[in-house]
Design a protein that fits this description.
- This protein is of the alpha/beta class.
- The chain is 42% helix and 11% strand.
- It has 3 domains: 71 residues; 179 residues, Rossmann fold; 60 residues, Arc Repressor Mutant, subunit A (Orthogonal Bundle), CATH 1.10.10.10.
- A 9-stranded mixed beta sheet has the order 1-2-6-5-4-3-7-8-9, sandwiched between helices. The protein has a two-stranded antiparallel ribbon with strand order 10-11.
- Helix 12 links the parallel strand 8 and strand 9.
- The relative contact order is 0.10.
Length: 374
């Protein structure tokens, strides 16, 4: 991560967007015409010209808040965390956002800005992802990144993190977050967040010190949609942030693709609904690569399927309909628990099945091999 020395204009822009009474849409317009330092001086001086920037028009209240604002502390935080401050007049501001009707007046970034200059695909999905969903997101991200496409997601649990990890293994990723870039949410992702900031790119419209809040994540999702050429939904319930991202993408004329899933699994409800409503279904990585008009960087060798027999085949069949506990498997198969335990031990050893908090589920990607589609 490159060291940052924030300029006075950058600190002023960060301070302006930090004021609670500041209207983002009005500030966006003002910063397209005026210098942030000039605007900040006008706020501090209680000039009536800044009334148009405020949600409630209370110039005295805004001026009092500005005069109490610690610009030196803000500058120190920006520098200590290598946070860049971008306004639309900055050449580093993403081109995909410049003409967006809802572009942020100020963006905060950590990492390599050039990653947004190339081809970008978003991979999003539920936090409550299945093992198969996570494997699918990782496979898609890895193949896209290997082909030179930057993979963008939201650093959330489940599908998002699997996508980031898949991309980071071979290429580049961008994380759009719903809090200040001096924080990490969720906290358990600190190591992956640090790696993204050091070697990839993290981006937020929220100034340092801003804690995550529920209303910030739908706003984060509109940025994911706006920054991407294609939005890919791997797993999603019938409600949630992934569907918000898909709607924001459609509103902007972006392509939306979705991985179809088992009708009996709740995490497939949203993706199946998207496909029903016109999203492009994905059954192989090659279908996504064709959307970008690129080929696989390296053709994968044919996948070999671990040999299963007898009870293991029956267990895999039952788990293909969704996660089950050991007791539920025994009940469904109507066989002695010892036979199920032995077969399950082999499936776990072969990593065909994974166990999480007592629930057993298939671990493989939901996509078919590229060879079948050539």
């Amino acid at each position: 991560m490159k060291p940052v020395q924030a300029t006075n204009a950058e600190v002023a822009a960060a301070a302006l967007v930090s004021l609670p009474a500041m209207s983002p849409s009005r500030l966006r317009h003002a910063l397209s015409e005026r210098d942030p330092e000039e605007l900040w001086r006008d706020v501090c001086a209680s000039r009536s010209s800044i009334r148009e920037l405020l949600v409630r028009g209370d110039v005295k209240h805004a001026a009092a808040a500005a005069r109490e604002f610690n610009l030196d502390a803000l500058s120190a935080t920006l520098n200590a965390n290598s946070i860049n401050v971008l306004t639309p007049s900055d050449h580093r501001y993403p081109e995909a956002l410049r003409d967006d009707v809802d572009r942020p007046p100020v963006l905060f970034t950590r990492g390599e800005h050039s990653l947004l200059a190339g081809r970008v695909a978003a991979i999003v999905g539920t936090r409550r992802a299945t093992a198969a969903g996570r494997a699918t997101a990782k496979e898609l991200a890895q193949e896209l990144a290997a082909a030179g496409i930057t993979v963008l997601s939201g650093l959330a649990l489940g599908i998002d993190t699997a996508a980031h990890r898949g991309a980071m293994a071979v290429g580049s990723t961008v994380a759009v977050v719903g809090c200040g870039l001096d924080l990490c949410y969720p906290a358990r992702h600190q190591s992956i967040f640090d790696e993204i900031c050091d070697e990839h790119l993290a981006l937020s419209e929220w100034p340092p010190g801003t804690a995550p809040a529920p209303f910030r994540f739908p706003m984060r999702n509109r940025l994911i949609a706006a920054l991407s050429e294609v939005v890919i939904v791997v797993e999603s319930g019938l409600t949630g942030g992934s569907l918000i991202t898909a709607r924001e993408a459609l509103d902007r004329g972006r392509e939306v693709m979705a991985v179809p899933g088992n009708l009996q699994v709740s995490s497939s409800g949203g993706t199946n609904a998207l496909i029903r409503d016109g999203a492009t279904p994905i059954t192989s990585v090659d279908e996504v690569l064709r959307e970008f008009e690129v080929s696989r960087a390296v053709q994968n060798p044919p996948l070999t399927t671990p040999h299963m027999k007898g009870r293991a085949i029956e267990i895999a069949h039952e788990l293909s309909h969704g996660s089950l506990t050991l007791d539920q498997l025994v009940q469904r198969l109507s066989v002695p628990i010892g036979e199920v335990v032995v077969a399950m031990g082999e499936l776990l050893r072969l990593e065909i099945v994974v166990e999480s908090n007592g629930w057993l589920e298939l671990s493989g990607s939901m996509l078919v091999s590229g060879k079948e589609h050539q």
